[in-house]
Write a structure and sequence with these properties.
The complex is a heterodimer of chains A (about 180) and B (about 80). By secondary structure, chain A is mostly helical. Chain A contains eight helices and no strands. Chain B has about 80 residues and is an all-alpha fold. Helices cover about 75% and strands about 0% of the residues of chain B. Chain B is built from four helices and no strands. Chain B starts with 5 loop residues before the first helix and ends with a helix. Classes of the chains: A mainly alpha (about 180), B mainly alpha (about 80). At the A-B interface, helix 1, helix 2, helix 5, helix 6 and helix 8 of A face helix 1, helix 3 and helix 4 of B.
Chain lengths: ~180, ~80
Amino acid sequence: MDDLERLVGENTGPLLRGALALGFSEADAEELVQDTFVAFLKARERFEGRSSVRTFLFGILYNKGAALSRKSRREAGTDDVEALFDARFNAAGHWRAGEPQGPEDAALSKELAELIAACAERLTQDQRGAFFLKEAEGLEAPEVCNILGVSDTNLRVLLFRARLRLRECLEKTWKGR
Amino acid sequence: MIRITCKEVSTAAATGSLEGAALLLRLRVRLHLLICRYCRRFLRQLRLIRGAMATSVFPAPAPERVQALERAALERLRRL
C-alpha cells in the first residue's frame, strides 16, 4: 500500500461522515471529500505536522463546505434560543414555573433518537460541524477550533446554542407526540 | 461561596464548561444537583442529546459507499 492509498483509505470514511454531518447531499458530500484530498496534495508543503493529518483534512473540508454553502463562518449577534433560555430563570437565577420539561430517560430509545435527529435539522451548518467534531469524532476543543477557524469562546457559543436549540426542540416535540 | 444558581449550572453544562472544570466548581454543581431535580433533568437531557448526536444523527456511511468513494478519489488523485 503506498502513501496515497493509506491517506485515502484511512480518511475517506471520517471525511464523508463529516461532510454529511454538515447537511450536504450525498453527491455534494462525495465531491467535497474528493476536492479535499486534491487540495491536501496541492497544499502538502503547508502541512507542518503541528496538527494530525486528519485535523488538517477536516480543516480543508470545512473550509470548502463553508465556501460551497456561502454561510457565514462566525456566529454573530444574539440568538432567539438564548433569550428563550434566559426567560426560564428568575432574577435569583432559579427556574421559573417554566422549568425544563420533556423526557427523563437515562437511556436513548429509538423514538428519542429519531426526535433528536429531526431537531438537529434546525441547527446551522457551523453548529452541526462543531457538534459533529466534538461529540461524534470526539476531538478536543483546540482541534475543533483549529478546524473550524474559530476561537475557543466562539466554539462555546456554537455548542451552547446548538445544545439549547436541541433541548428546546426535544421538549416541544416530546410534549406534542 | 458554595451556592450556585440553576442558571449557572445549566449554562456551564450547555457551554461545556464543566469538562475539565476546577474541582470547586464541580463540587458546587454536584451539591446543587442533589437538591434540584430540574437541573438534574436538564443535564440528563443534554447527555441524551450528546448520545443521539454521536450515534443516530451522524451515522457512519455504509462501507460499500466509502469503498466506492475511495476508488474514485484514488483514480482522480493519480491523474494529478
